[in-house]
Amino acid sequence: MENIFGTDGIRGVYGAELDCGTAYLLGAALCGADGDSPVVVVGRDTRPSGEALLRALAKGVHDNGGYVINIGILPTNAVAYFTRKMGCDFGVMISASHNPPEYNGLKVFDRYGVKLCEKKQREISDFMRDREASEAEGAELCVFDSAGKLYTDYIENLLMPDLHGLKISLDCCYGSCYDVASSVFGKTGAKLNVYCGFNRGEMINKDCGATHPEFLEKMMKSNGSELGFAFDGDCDRVAVIERGHSLDNDRLLYALAKYMSEKGLLKKDMVVGTVLTNRGVEMALNGLKLRLLRSDVGDANVFHLMTKKGVNLGGERSGHFLLSDFATGSDALLNALFFARIYKEKGSITDYTAGYKNVPCREKSINVSPDILKRMKNCGYFEKVAGEVRSLFGGVKLVLRASGTEPKVRIYIEGEDAGEIEEAMKHTAWQISNFN
Q1: Fewer beta carbons within 10 angstroms: which end of the chain, N or C?
Q2: Residue positions annotated with a catalytic role
Q3: CA distances from residue 296 to 127, 169, 273, 401 in whole angstroms, order as listed
Q4: Stretch (H or E) spanning 284
Q5: Nearest to 78 by CA among 234, 298, 205, 259
């Protein structure tokens, strides 16, 4: 049976691929999956559709014997944290992460604050397909008012570097960390410039945030900040800007590994990346006598491999970094504090990671309709195109996949010859664009 979860939850344009009926059925499914009056922690980002989805989800839970704790607008890792801390059965974050304001999504966590495994996702998907959504108005909910203070206390107790003397800029992208990011960084002693730090969900991720770091780059060049952090809508991705220039996320993974290894904090001398992690990371880690393991794309896949191998550091090119000694998922606020600590202790992160050399690569995303994307996956088209590209361009590595968060095909090509990469990209993009 089809799994309705993508790489990061159930996601789509609100009112089209995702609606309140979906949220209601998910709430019902969580009760069906648990079977004994489950308690569900729910948080959300600032998107206008979030309140309606929250009420529909809560009604689905209440109608089927469960209870909801509404923690309000907070980052994704706050949901995971409170689910664990309060001994609840599930957590749900209502967010479409880095996607535009018209999107929304439902990320589900188990009682350990870990995103659901594929088996549980399929069980819930099957349950939701066999039920009908209620058309009644959603439930009214009170907010757990202390949640924001408790979450920031949790972050501050885990990691609070002394950043006196640093000028730091934050881009909160009008998202879930619009309030807590400045609150936490305000206690580090750094001089702060905060942008997009308001509850304006209609502007979330629009030309700002982790997927648009050029905005903060521009602001930093005018305000003189030496270090900057841009977050996405649910604060699980971070872009790091040093003296007005964005740092490559693979370089940042190497920086974390090198620092943790030097401090004796890195377990098993191993780091988990994905099939998209640049080979330059692997070579640089090998130079430190460290090993890179690779999972499929998705921070949940990274975390599950980390758990299996007993590793405490993982990351993705997208800006997810997992420090499992501190959190069960990628917490961009926590990660930003960790990078700030490295900068304060080691100076320029660029200089500190001089041992990392990026292997030439290119990435491209192609918009396709959801129907075409489904047909491509069902007929094995990606495998066919990938096989053809590998036979024509033997010197490149190709990763061709459907996005798990929006209707796009992602192309990643890596190799030593820039010309061969370019030709391989043209060929692959043409094949995707001319599918029929």
Answers
A1: C
A2: 97
A3: 26, 33, 9, 11
A4: helix 279-287
A5: 234
CA separation for the pair 223, 41 (Å, rounded):
39
CA distances for 246 relative to 239, 252, 377, angstroms: 7, 10, 34
Q: Which has the closest alpha carbon to 366: 415, 428, 408, 338?
A: 408
Whether the CA torsion 411, 176, 217, 250 is positive or negative: it is negative
Indicate whether this model's pTM tops 0.90.
yes
Distance CA 228, CA 216 (A): 7
Closest CA to 107 of 312, 317, 324, 405: 405
Q: Express each pLDDT in 375-407 by its tens digit.
A: 998 899 999 999 999 999 999 999 999 988 888
Amino acid in position 366: I
Burial class (CB in 10 A: 0-12, 13-18, 19+), 300: buried
pLDDT digits (tens, 9 = 90+) for 5-55: 988 899 999 999 899 999 999 999 999 855 578 999 999 999 999 999 999
Here the tokens at position 80 are 């995971």
**Rounded Cα gap, residues 171 and 240, in angstroms:** 10
- H helical segments located in 291-417: 299-309, 332-346, 349-352, 370-378, 381-392
Q: E-assigned strands of 66-178?
A: 67-73, 90-94, 103-109, 167-171
Cα pseudo-dihedral 419, 420, 425, 431, rounded to 10: 130
Q: Which residue has the tokens 């003296």?
A: 243
Among the listed residues 74, 1, 70, 66, the one whose alpha carbon sits nearest the alpha carbon of residue 27: 66
The DSSP element (H or E) to which 430 belongs, if any, is: helix 418-433
194 bridge partner residues: 170
- CB-based contact 93:61 (threshold 8 Å): no
Give yes or no for a contact between 237 and 320, defined as CB atoms under 8 angstroms apart. Answer: yes
Exposed e or buried b per residue across 34-47, where buried means at least 16 C-beta atoms within 10 angstroms of its C-beta: beeebbbbbbbbbb
Dihedral (C-alpha) 331, 327, 305, 232: value to the nearest 10 degrees?
-10
Structure tokens at 274: 């994905």
Quick one: CA dihedral 197, 199, 202, 204, positive or negative?
positive
CB atoms within 10 A of CB 104: 31
Beta strands in 53-120 (DSSP E): 67-73, 90-94, 103-109
Q: Which residue has the tokens 């094995």?
A: 380
